[in-house]
Amino acid sequence: MPQFQRPTGTLDILPEDQPYWYHVRTRARHLAELSGFERIDVPMFEATELFARGVGEGTDIVDKEMYSFQDKGCHDITLRPEFTAGVLRAYIENGMRVLPQPVKLYTFGPIFRYERPQAGRYRQHTQFDVEILGDQDPAADLEVMVLAWDLYAGLGFRDLAFQLNSTGCPRCKPGYIAVLKDYYARHLDQICEDCVRRMERSPLRVLDCKEDRCQPFIEAAPHIIDYLCEECAEHFATLRGYLDLLDRAYTINHRLVRGLDYYTKTVFEVWATGIGAQAAVVGGGRYDGLAEAIGGPPTPGVGFGSGIERIVLVMKQLGVEVPPLPAPPVFVAHLGAKAGQEAVRLTNALRAAGVGAWLAFGQRGLKSQLREAGKRGARYVVIMGEDELAAGRAAVRDMKSGEQVDVALAELVDWLKVRA
């Protein structure tokens, strides 16, 4: 039989890594709920058309990276490559427009993209996702941006700063795209093939190209913020004023467009220092036209998605320590068949009383059981043998102090409940 291995681009999250994951999720959930966000969970797969219309034909995600298939009912299905389209679909389908607006939502879960695996990026990875739906106020943009900043600051990332841009709206974006196309038309024989294709299907994406030969043309390209309509310019200026008010460092990055077609107005990333070549740790933006693109009523929105695998990887690189997950404080050791029966009864009684307990398995010597208790981090070891049972008592050893006392079996659960 062959030895199976996990698929390329996936990750086993082992028990020793779970304290990091618990710590990240706990902080993310705390920050979200502190600002009034509510939890939502959406399916891991949706109709392929939802992502094709929402994320955008011509994007790398739709063209190259989606896990799509036909199910047994001949429906075109895609494992979600991002959260926003599915969350907005749920908002529309479940009539959340009748709720007080805006609606603030957050979620955790896996997303799937067939891309080249690299450090901290996987074909299946887990995201913390935050969305504010139903309001165009730049203060909503600020709120998701600050939440992202505070998440990373609280997890030990250093010297944070925003990268910021505006991608305009349907009124002003077409005018800029026309200018951009005119500029690139003079250089089509000098840019990469991907950028030639993007100019036809998703022109703003040329500004995000990483090919060396395209960099001079990106640097010299016209800036979209010079072509914003009055509404978009005011929105951008107001957001910048809020960032100045809170003393949050930012740089206007004219080439920042993100990789999704649905963005309008604000796009942002949070960058950190000391984490290697990839300074961007999280990104997001506003998507006021997405609801209409997927067949719903006009619904403004803004949000971000953050990959937990990369967060944990960088925390380890930075030497960030996290609290260990709590282990059962009581280990129940036993010697002899009758003592084994009483150990089973006691272990279940302790758990029913809310006291974590680990039952020693098998018939082993006391030294072996004590060694196991030490390795498992137990604070107290209950020791029961035939003599203890005959006396109606058990020995309890404090593994921290080394002290050992006898406690009546009838009182043992209450005694441990107070101390463990």
Counted beta strands: 16
Report, as a whole number of angstroms, the end-to-end distance. 47 Å
Largest sheet: spatial strand order:
1-5-6-11-10-9-7-8
Over all CA atoms, what is the radius of gyration? 28 Å
Number of domains: 2
By CATH, the architecture of the largest domain is named: 2-Layer Sandwich
The fold-level CATH name of the largest domain is BirA Bifunctional Protein, domain 2
For the sheet with most strands, the description reads:
8 strands, mixed
* Helix content, binned percent: 25-40%
Q: On the 0-100 scale, what is the average pLDDT?
A: 93
Unreliable parts: none
How would you describe the oligomerization state of the chains in this entry? single chain
Number of continuous helical runs: 15
Our estimate of the beta-strand percent is: 15-25%
Name of the CATH class of the largest domain:
Alpha Beta
Question: Helix/strand-derived class?
Answer: alpha+beta
Query: What is the CATH superfamily classification of the largest domain?
Result: Bira Bifunctional Protein, Domain 2
